[in-house]
Specification:
With 430 residues, the protein is of the alpha/beta class. It has 17 helices and 14 strands. The strands form two sheets. Strands 3-4-2-1-5-6-7-8 form an eight-stranded mixed beta sheet, with helices on both faces. A six-stranded parallel beta sheet has the order 11-10-9-12-13-14, sandwiched between helices. α8 links the parallel β9 and β10. α1 crosses α17, α8 crosses α15 and α14 packs across α16.
Length: 430
């Protein structure tokens, strides 16, 4: 089966032969796990003109397609979040229109047997018009269709045969939001390289009081809630430390409503800035420092001295970073579609304390592989962390159980198997 994987226009082919960006990483890992018989070709963005196919993930060829106006698109995306009521730029019909038009032209010359489109629903009709007889799979990593009016999303989904999602939570939300297309949504999940994250010696981190947050350091990730909780932890356990690992920045504010409504999301507006000038200052001018200052203000002096901020670390270092921690923390205040740091921590044999929201409860078995708390509740978060720090044996048992669950359900091979089942059903015409 010949498959064309149309990646996001910001994804790039790296010197390592893998793809950049979070969805590029997912596409890379899935491709490496496809069985023989699947001939996949990637289409990704390029800053240096169109190039001949090069070897990419799993040895599959990569066609690099020129992306014009990249900086303009990024600027428009940021600006769309500064004025309340504006739609996210990423749902606009003209969003990277040239990239998708060129991909459609290339695919029309040599049609594949199946087309796999990453994220951008509004471009599905264009690809369907170029390839009217080719099954089209849309791959959703976050609630992108909620940025459209339901009628517009439903019309665009007419061009799609199957939608695969990163979690059952996201699939269920979409079924309820777009009932006329409910049968199209299927969970395949994400995964982790369980060998790379193989649990280190059980004593490597379990005897310590080191807490670990991994992810984008952005308000929706709830790091400000963790700061308040950690201040309470340090008051009880002065030896506790916290590592915050990830790139600072803001998710564009216009995308936040796609994750739902409610007081927690409304509260994020104070952190983003409730008027355009404040928003411009925080989200654009000082985007790499303003949220960190918010976090630091919520840390007690003792907690601040015990907190270490690290930039985004190379992937090969992450198993070591998880391994030297006692507990991994995911305090998101949004409905997380999946929670990749959660399964990485589980694969590394570490217990997880996380928000009971979105797709996270599909990953963490509360009381067995970790503890779940209500999002936005620093007292509950602190109590859960103190509970595990006070009982290292229970924490180690949870980490071991999490490792087993990750290997059994959340490897990239498992996700690829579920994806192949979708491909197979389309090939069979069902």
């Amino acid at each position: 089966m010949r498959i064309a994987m149309v990646c996001q226009p910001r994804d790039r082919l790296l010197a390592s032969g893998l793809l950049s960006g979070s969805t590029g990483i997912v596409a890379s890992e899935l491709a490496k796990c496809l069985p023989p018989g699947y001939a996949l070709t990637f289409y990704v963005g390029s800053d240096h003109g169109e190039t001949a196919a090069a070897a990419g993930p799993g040895g599959h060829p990569v066609v690099q397609v020129p992306v014009e106006g990249d900086r303009n698109e990024q600027a428009l995306e940021l600006l769309s979040g500064l004025w309340p009521g504006l739609s996210a730029r990423s749902v606009a019909p003209g969003y990277y229109r040239g990239y998708f038009a060129r991909v459609a032209e290339l695919l029309g010359r040599e049609p594949p047997d199946l087309l796999h489109l990453q994220t951008y629903l509004q471009h599905a009709p264009r690809l369907r018009a170029a390839l009217p007889d080719v099954p089209l799979v849309l791959h959703l990593h976050h609630p992108h269709p909620f940025g459209f009016a339901p009628e517009a999303a439903a019309r665009a989904l007419d061009a799609v045969d199957v939608v695969v999602t990163c979690s059952e939570h996201l699939a269920q939300r979409l079924r309820a939001h777009l009932p006329s297309h409910a049968a199209k949504f299927h969970m395949i999940g994400n995964g982790v390289d369980s060998d790379a994250f193989a649990a280190p010696d059980a004593d490597a981190g379990g005897a310590s009081a080191r807490l670990l947050f991994v992810g984008r350091v952005s308000p929706e990730k709830g790091v400000h809630v963790l700061a308040q909780a950690f201040s309470r932890v340090v008051a009880v356990r002065p030896e506790a430390t916290l590592e915050i690992v990830g790139r600072p920045g803001y998710l564009p504010a216009s995308i936040l409503p796609q994750f739902g409504r409610g007081p927690l999301l409304e509260g994020l507006r104070d952190l983003y800035g409730r008027n355009p000038l404040v928003g411009l200052s925080r989200q654009v001018i000082s985007s790499r420092s303003s949220y960190r200052r918010t976090i630091e203000r919520r840390l007690s002096p003792a907690a601040r001295a015990a907190t270490r901020f690290l930039a985004a670390e190379p992937f090969e270092r992450m198993p070591l970073i998880y391994g030297r921690s006692a507990v991994a923390v995911t305090p998101s205040v949004i409905q997380e579609p999946f929670g990749l740091p959660v399964v990485e921590a589980m694969a590394a044999g570490r217990p997880v304390v996380a928000s009971r929201a979105g797709g996270i409860p599909e990953l963490v078995a509360d009381g067995r592989t970790g503890l779940l708390v209500e999002p936005g509740d620093p007292l509950a978060l602190a109590d859960a962390l103190l509970t595990l720090l006070a009982d290292p044996e229970r924490a180690r048992a949870m980490g071991a159980a999490g490792r087993k669950d990750a290997v059994a359900h959340w490897t990239w091979q498992r996700a690829a198997d579920r994806l192949c089942a979708v491909y197979g059903s389309l090939a069979a015409g069902s």
